[in-house]
């Protein structure tokens, strides 16, 4: 099971997350309390191993600005959290993770043919498009609709509930941000514990 730690803002946390086993690191370039500059993201990314996805999170940004930031920072993936169209997604130079706020299975049908290898299911929209720390109803998500996609689960995940989410949905990856924070700051102990919990589940199933 793969893990994405989103909303990284400093080198120490990015490097530690990768060392703990994170498969993807997310950098927020949309309006958010976790918003980061392209140059700060580049500094962090320069210290990360090649195997780790470097994901830029955007909301209704222009293609030119996204490509500019990706080149400066060294991104490997675009995460689209807005109302971006299929045509827009196809025009981008990097692989796309299309994020949606899960409402019901109809919302999955609308993206089953979206031109992206990855679909991220997030909780309800709050002040921001993502990172609001609210889970969706996992039991209501029929992931067979997205059988041709690599599904990423986000929204309100933390060490106490991630095991249940994985057992219900069996996603490709789980994505956490606020669930590994203390007082709105990434907490290395929580990041380590979260990753160990998720990776440990796989080991338990193999036994």
TrEMBL record:
It comes from the Bacteria. One of its GO terms (molecular function) is phosphoribosylanthranilate isomerase activity. Its EC number is 5.3.1.24. Pathway: Amino-acid biosynthesis; L-tryptophan biosynthesis; L-tryptophan from chorismate: step 3/5. Keywords: Amino-acid biosynthesis, Aromatic amino acid biosynthesis, Isomerase, Tryptophan biosynthesis. The keyword Nucleus does not apply. This is N-(5'-phosphoribosyl)anthranilate isomerase. It comes from Neobacillus thermocopriae. The gene is trpF.
